[in-house]
Amino acid sequence: MPQESWVPKLHRGFEIRDELRDYLVEQANAPRPARYETNADEHTNRRVWAQWVAETVPSYERAAVLLGDAIHNLRAAMDHAVWAITPEAVRLAYPRRVAFPLHSTEKLYKDWLKSRKSWYGPTVLAVFEWAQPYAASANEIHPLHILQYLSNTDKHQLLNVVANNQVNLAEITVEPKPEGGVVSSVNEGVVEPGTVLARVEFPRHEAKSPGERTSMDIKGVFAYEQVVRYVDISENERWLPVGEVMNRIGPMVVEAVGYVISADLKDRGLYTEPSATTDSVQSDSDSA
Predict the structure, then answer these.
(1) What whole-number distance in Å separates Cα of residue 220 and Cα of residue 32?
(2) Would you give the distance in Å from CA 81 to the centre of its chain?
(3) Is the pLDDT of residue 276 over 80?
(4) How far apart are the first and last CA of the chain?
């Protein structure tokens, strides 16, 4: 078998993933200044409103580059594994046609398989079919489809969009509670400069005597996560937490590579127990 070039590719992918993780931790603590706006002093208005507006958000350009580099190395490890098990005559004749197949529909996979079925043994073909994103259920996000989408996006001269996403932890509180209740909304989604993070509105207190003034304490709790844009098999746009994405992709890439290498050995009657090298890569994949 040719040199196991998929091993350094896997290790490099996980090294960059760890660098991305550390960078995202730094960015999670970056300031996110918000401007507080209110009409509390407009006493002719019978309703009071207040809102917080994002002034700046952290830049995730470096995160996008790191994510692309990690994804490319993991995707390349899968291709290197298939290159390693492909007969030399095929590699010489069709070098650009040798890759680990990942397809979103069964038809695309069957079309890919037609001219390649004779290249591999039955166990390898079973692994290929197991790995196909189209096999996932309608509500399931397949890790290898995420991998393929992120790889294709970055490969075609576009950075994957990594963004600052607001999470709704709690409603806006107003103390003391106004008569007539409070209407509040907290943004859930990608935050850009100018985004209204949260807004609250309630009836203005009517003074019981001339000169009476009231004060209220309006508080909001804001929390964020770092997300990446993903379009699923059904063409639905989703924003997935970056850490969750990498923790789902990494182990499945290791499984796919390990399975295809072992499957080829089995087809050739040479299968042995996994080596320490494979165990080391598995350990790396689980360390996010």
Answers:
(1) 14
(2) 24
(3) no
(4) 31
